[in-house]
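Backbones bend. Shown next:

***
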Amino acid sequence: MSSQPDTRSLEARARSLAGTFPACDDAPLARALLRALARGEPVTASALAATTGRPEHDVTQILARWPNVRRDEQGRVEAFGGLSLRPTEHRFDVHGRRLYTWCAWDTLFLPALLDEQAQVESTCPVTNLRVNLTVAPERVLASGPNDVWVSFPPLAGTCTENIIDSFCCHVHFLAGQNAAARWVNGRDGFALDLDDAFQLGRLATGAMSCPSEDR
C-alpha cells in the first residue's frame, strides 16, 4: 500500500494511465463531450458538431478513434472518459443531475474537466460503509468518513482500449487505512489516500486540460 508516494512515483503511474484519455489536440472536443454528457442525455455526433462548430464528419471520425467511448442502442454516446449515464455503483451528481462514473477514481478528476463541483456517493467493498464526497475542480472539499483511500490494480496490465474490465472494476473507495490495508493484502496493486489519488488524476488527465480554446 502506498501511503506517501513521492511526486516521481505519481508521475510514473500517471504516464501509465494517460493513454486512456484523448491527446492534447483533442482536448477541447473531449471536454465538450463531457459537458454535454453531464447534462444527463446521450450525445449524438451531430449535436456535438453543432456545439463545437466542427464538421460532423470530423467529429464522427474523432469519436471512432478515441478509446473508451460507449454508445447506446441508437449509436449515441452514453459514456466517455469515466462519465456514464448508465448506472454504476459510483453516483456522481452535478447540479442535481444524477450521473455515474466507471470507477471511484473518475469522481476525483472529472470535476476539473467539467469545471463543476460534484457530490459523490459510493460504498467501501471491505466495510460496506457508505462513502460520500464533495469534490471541487481544485480539490476534495469534504469526505465522509474522513479517512478514505482508493484502490488501484497493477498499472502495467492496464488495457487502455478496455479500461472498464482491465482497470475500473478494481478501483474502489476504501473506508479507512485499515480497510485499504485489508484490500491490498493478498492482491497485486496499491491504494492511495484521497489527496494522492486526486493528484494522480490531475497528472493523468493533463492532456485533457490543455489550454487551447474550445471550438
Remarks:
- Helices lie at 7-17, 27-37, 45-52, 56-65, 106-114, 163-166, 177-184, 194-204.
- The chain has eight helices and eleven strands.
